[in-house]
Design brief:
Strand content: 15-25%
Distance between the termini: 32 Å
Order of helices and strands: EEHEEHEHEEEHEEHH
Strand order of the largest sheet: 4-2-5-10-6
Largest sheet: 5 strands, mixed
Radius of gyration: 16 Å
């Protein structure tokens, strides 16, 4: 990480890895990211994404938390760009890491007859027509920057698996619902 500015307080970067260094491109991305002085990385390793995220938040008292996953890569200045918007919650546009690579930005949800929820994501064509910051129903957690007061308002545990569908993790979408 490259301390790049003192314009913002240090950020806690939480990486809920299933294993250390799962993807080389992620490690190269994180090494070059520009961060505020005092920024720390917290890596929590277990099979539970929700547990890893919650533990990472509990282990730090930063003003900001940036959530990234070890199967993503990002530009060096992404964190500083997100901080510059000074929004309580803001996320970068990301996509799922497997085909068909749809964006993880959602415009609503539907309740299925099973009682599970289905989230309706934006298409790439719909996103092409948008510019700047856009309010959305929910987003995926990778690339999401959250101010501590929002986490305090949501309350511990922040992330819980299986709440939107018992067969899917869905911890990020349930966080957005909260």
């Amino acid at each position: 990480m490259i301390p790049w500015t003192t314009d913002y307080p240090g950020v806690t970067i939480v990486v809920p890895s299933s294993s250390v260094g799962r993807f080389t491109m992620f490690e190269l991305s994180i090494e070059g990211v520009q961060v505020p002085a005092g920024t720390q990385i917290i890596r929590v390793l277990s099979a539970s994404i929700a547990k890893n995220l919650n533990t990472g938040i509990r282990e730090s008292m930063s003003m900001w938390y940036w959530f990234i996953d070890d199967d993503h890569q990002f530009s060096q200045d992404l964190l500083l760009k997100l901080l510059a918007h000074n929004q309580p919650v803001i996320a970068a546009v990301t996509c799922v890491s497997r085909p068909p690579f749809h964006p993880v930005i959602y415009k609503g949800e539907e309740l299925l007859p099973s009682g599970n929820k289905m989230f309706r994501n934006y298409s790439w064509a719909e996103l092409d027509a948008k510019h700047g910051i856009e309010p959305v129903f929910a987003v995926g957690r990778p690339g999401m920057l959250i101010r501590r007061d929002i986490l305090e308002r949501v309350g511990d545990p922040w992330y819980e698996c299986g709440k939107t569908n018992p067969e899917e993790s869905g911890e990020d979408l349930y966080f957005c619902e909260k």
